[in-house]
Design goal:
By secondary structure, the protein is of the alpha/beta class. It is built from nine helices and ten strands. This is AAA+ ATPase domain-containing protein.
Length: 252
């Protein structure tokens, strides 16, 4: 396949994934080498090789646009969120915009990471979504990491956020076209159940998961994770696959 045809094929795939017009999808693919880096270092596998999370679209070689992380209390979800955030902004020349909601984040992350205030996070995310919609997804990609997502969503003020037409569903469903990538951590192993009205959108649009120690993944030790991608595997089912990548991570 010639380079030109390969570009066109990638653009068609990107168009199908994002819903963007073909001309814009082609421009996105043509400038892919200049777009911000969406690869985060997670840890090392059993052979000592680096294990990474790539939130880019499959047309760009990634497994995005979103990712979930599940695990019981103390399994390392917040630590992994911090590691991902730091890794994404390590090189400021290629860093996306990174937003983090985490109980551990304040004062621990680089100044280039925006730490979301729990009291205004809903409004901040609505504003981010509206801004990206006006830009038609043409701005700098944004990565939003929400720690303890299922716990946060149970708060009464989140009803509008998680409703059938709410912001969370829009972010999950339309994030790929808006240039917004989500990383959501939760204790609940079943992501669709944890996200309420946004659950069906999650099943259709989140194809990468990281499993930490929990009842269905009890053989994992603390500080270990299992990276699951939907390469012929349903990552939303709580099952181990021979395609999973086991890795070790430590506090940064």
């Amino acid at each position: 396949m010639t380079t030109n045809n390969a570009h066109k094929k990638a653009a068609r795939q990107h168009q199908a994934e994002t819903g963007k017009p073909y001309s814009q999808a082609l421009r996105d693919v043509d400038t892919a080498d200049r777009r911000p880096n969406l690869v985060a270092h997670l840890g090392l596998d059993d052979d000592g090789a680096a294990v990474t999370l790539d939130l880019a679209e499959p047309s760009r070689g990634g497994s995005g646009p979103h990712c979930f992380i599940t695990g019981r209390t103390g399994s390392g979800k917040s630590v992994l969120v911090e590691r991902i955030a730091r890794s994404l902004v390590e090189d400021q020349r290629t860093a996306p915009e990174v937003f983090v909601h985490s109980r551990l984040a304040k004062g621990r992350l680089p100044s280039t990471v925006t730490v979301l205030d729990p009291t205004t996070m809903l409004e901040d995310l609505v504003r981010l979504t509206d801004d990206r919609a006006r830009e038609n997804g043409a701005g700098n990609p944004a990565v939003v990491l929400i720690d303890d997502c299922d716990g946060w969503l149970t708060q009464p003020r989140m009803v509008r956020f998680v409703s059938s037409g709410g912001t969370l569903r829009s972010l999950v469903k339309e994030g790929r076209s808006l240039g917004i990538h989500l990383v959501l951590t939760m204790q609940h192993e079943l992501v669709a159940a944890a996200l309420g009205a946004a659950g069906s959108a999650a099943a259709d649009n989140i194809s990468t998961g990281i499993r930490l120690k929990s009842p269905s993944f009890s053989d994992l030790r603390m500080g270990e994770g299992l990276l699951q991608r939907s390469d012929g595997v349903d990552v939303h089912r709580c099952r181990v696959s021979d395609q999973d990548v086991r890795f070790r991570f430590e506090p940064v």
